[in-house]
Each structure stands twice: as C-alpha cells, then as structure tokens.
Amino acid sequence: MAENNKFTDEDDALLAELGIEVEVKKVQQYNTKEQRIIAGFEEILNFVEEHGRMPEHGENNDIFERLYAVRLDKINSSDECFELLEPFDTKNLLRQGEKIEEISNDIDDEELLKQLGVDIDADKSITKLKHVKTRAEKKAAEEIANRTRCEDFEKFKHLFEQIKKEIDSGLRETVRFRKDAGFTKTTLKQAQFLIVGGQIALIAEIGESFKAPNGEEDSRLRVIYSNGTESNILLRSLIRAMYKDETSRFITDPGLGPLFSGEVNEDDQESGTIYVLRSLSNHPMVQENKDVVHKIGVTGGDVKKRTYNAKNDPTFLMADVEIVATYKLANINRVKLEKVIHKFFNTAKLNIEIKDRFGKPVKPDEWFLVPIFIIDEMVEKIKDGSVSDYYYDIASASIKRMN
Prior knowledge:
This protein is α+β, with helices and mostly antiparallel strands. 31% of the residues lie in helices and 19% in strands. The chain folds into three domains: 32-123, no CATH class; 136-251, SH3 type barrels (Roll); 270-401, no CATH class. A seven-stranded antiparallel β-sheet has the order 1-8-7-4-3-9-2, with helices on both faces. The termini are far apart.
C-alpha cells in the first residue's frame, strides 16, 4: 500500500486480479456557509448529549441554550438546511412531519443574538458571552436600581434592626441564592427577608398573580430595603437579579423554638449541656468580681470531666472552678447555641490576660461579667424562643426588650 494509505494504479490492478472491486468514494466538499451550518448543528447535538433534552426558549435559560433553540427553529424552517444536516442528525432533532413556518435562511449567530436581546460589542464574539447581559437581565437590574423613598419606613425600621441582630447572633443564617440550591419563585413569600444589591430587603407585599408573556406565573411586589427605599418589582425580575448577583443571599427563618429544657423527654436525643462555672482563681480582677465572673459554655460530654484539669488549663484561668449551673440540651446544634449565648453577652465579655504554665500570655474566651440570675433569665428566653427580642444592657445589668 502506498504512502498516505492511497491505492496506486498497480494496487488497483492487483486487487482486480484477486476479484476485489475497488470503490472510490467521493469526499463531500462543503462551502464556507455549509461548514458553518454543520458546525452550529453539532453544537446543538452536543447540548442534547450533555443535558438529555432539546434546547428550550425562555429568558431564564442560559444564553447559549436560547441561541441553540432559535438556531434549531431556523434550521427546521429551511429545506436547504434540512437536506444538508439530515446525515448528521444522530439525535432525530430535525423536523418530524411537515416543515415549520419559514423563518429565515440566515443562521448568523450575531443576528440570532440580537433577536434574543443580547448586545455584542465589536470586539466580542460568541465564545466570550459569559458576562453579556440580555435585555431581560438589564431590565431586572434596572428595576432593582429604580427605587423610591419609602414614606412609611418607620413601620419597618425596627424589623431590619432585629434581623441584623439575629444574623449577628446566629439565630438566622444567610444562604447563597442559587438555581442549583433549589430556590424557586414559590420560595419567596410575603414577609421574606433577603439580601440583594448589598441591602437587606423585605418583601412587604405580593400582588395578584398573572401570566407573563412566556406563560409563567408572575406578580408585582412591594420590596422595602434597609436603607429606607422601596421598589415595585416583578417577582421574576427579583429572582433573576438575585441569580446574577454574586452577593445575594436568602435569609433563613430563626427556627429556634424551645431549644431545651431541664428535662429530656424519652423521644429526645440528648445533645449536650450548657454549663456555668465560677473561677476560684486568685487573680485580682477575678477576686474583685467573683460573684459575677462566669464562664458559659456548651459541651457534649460530662461537665465534671470537662473541668477535671482546670488548674492547668488557661481556658479555665489556670485555676479550679465551681460548677454553678447546668442545663440539658436536646435536639440542638451545640455550636450554634453557644454562638447565640456568647453574642448575647458580648458586651459583658471579661477582658483578662493570664500566663499559661509555660509563661506565655493568653486571653481566655467564654468568661463574662454577668450575674447568675441574668444567665437564668437568658436561658428562659431561649427556651420560649424569644431571645432575639431582647438584649443584655450592661449599664443596668438587666435584660431589656428591643424597641
């Protein structure tokens, strides 16, 4: 066999003597336009292979999927494209039955993108569309930015202050607002708090539902923002803006309920113990305030074992301790609860520096200048789930309700 695997005339003659017919296949030649159409169809085939479905129209879909959907419509409207691509149609994507209504023979990507509402600069190409915004996305961003002064903001101001405190204390969490996290339009509801555009936002009102042009349900919202502004935005526009905003967050409900009680029911799973300790240290600051200096912590083990080696542990001020009170925990996240307690008494945190057994200076955490009766009162607030409505006023050494 000759070089490049091509048969010479001598090879053909030899094969003929052996009774083997040589069929010379003509290599199909495509012009530039046909090559572009074939390459575009192969991208659609790759999409179907990866996602297991046809590309779909819709403003909420990825721009490339929308591009493929329009491109496929145009292909199916053209007899020329149908005949050209039929040999490549391994997924049976081409028209089945009668041809759909003629759209246009032009399948230029830039023209398709313009029809989809995507503006491309002269120096951009179809391969550089990651940060290109569609008209719908621009409209959503404009609605978010188009805010007016909230005339009755005083009705909502205390709610934003409370939400911020609950986030800081760990009673509420913020979760990234992503499509793949399962958030949908039904996730958002009246009285829902969000973070969008760098502001905490409250969905104060949801109007009547109506059909959007694409057939989906939509509604007009009244959204109040923590900076004293508000917007009259569509639900779908708000969600679209949050998907595109890397800093957007979904603020969870407190969900604390009765965290624990002195007794654990048979069906409860005991999770640990809150402990309150008093130090027996000779440190001058501790001695002067021995009736109010307390260590408050949460442990999953036995408190006595936890404090067994206290005199050698800088966490316990390098001194023995006395167990003042304990509270059993059931079905609770110990780390989260401890964070709530420490945030609640943060203003009363004991600022003390001691030396460990190697002479190295350390500043122990979890020690507070708080009377035991205040700790008991705080525990009761946690039990009934109202702790987020209160704060510890160090000046009066009392727990006060927030305005």
